[in-house]
Amino acid sequence: MNRVGIGYDVHQFAENRPLILGGITIPHSKGLQGHSDADVLSHAIADAVLGALGLPDIGHYFPPSDPSIEGISSLEILKKCRTLAEERDSEIVNIDSTLVAEAPRVLPYRDSMQNKIADALGLQPSLVGIKATTNEQMGFVGRGEGIAAMAVASVAC
């Protein structure tokens, strides 16, 4: 049986933090605020995988109240999702995702992000779709206050 899950995440920009998307540090004047590295793309993907597995969201496994995981790489979160799938004799089939941001432009980093995410999930890079769009200057994303991401994951059970 194939199952599908969706994920969505959003983080606001913050001063004095690196901007990490898909496990890659991207040059930008601000980073994203969060308990982990605030990798909004990886968080959306993690929630999509967990949803396809019928499991709770990443906050269940990586609660922001846990000081031992402060600053954790979100690639570690994706590796945990892979482990959870394997423990259930399930296989992540593919991922499709979209980043929503006015800036920065992420196309130059797409291949690197694909490779990092694919490695964490045990996939071929061609099975990790990453797209980017703007919010046409509408809402908090359009005003440049943060970045949103959404993802879909397919899992064979």
Description of the structure:
The protein is α+β, with helices and mostly antiparallel strands. It has a single domain (2-156), classed as 2-Layer Sandwich (60s Ribosomal Protein L30, Chain: A). Helix content is 30%, strand content 31%. It contains 5 helices and 7 strands. The chain has helices spanning 40-52, 58-61, 74-87, 110-121, 139-142, and strands at 2-14, 19-21, 24-26, 31-32, 91-100, 128-133, 146-156. It has a 5-stranded mixed beta sheet with strand order 4-1-7-5-6. A two-stranded antiparallel sheet has the order 2-3. A hairpin with a 2-residue loop joins β2 and β3. α1 (40-52) packs parallel to α3 and α3 (74-87) packs parallel to α4. The longest helix has 14 residues, at 74-87. The N and C termini lie close together (5 Å).
In short:
It contains 5 helices and 7 strands.
Properties at a glance:
157 residues; alpha+beta; 60s Ribosomal Protein L30, Chain: A; five-stranded mixed beta sheet; two-stranded antiparallel sheet; 5 helices; 7 strands
How would the blueprint of this fold be written?
Layout: E1 2-14, E2 19-21, E3 24-26, E4 31-32, H1 40-52, H2 58-61, H3 74-87, E5 91-100, H4 110-121, E6 128-133, H5 139-142, E7 146-156
Parallel strand pairs: 5-6
Antiparallel strand pairs: 1-4, 1-7, 2-3, 5-7
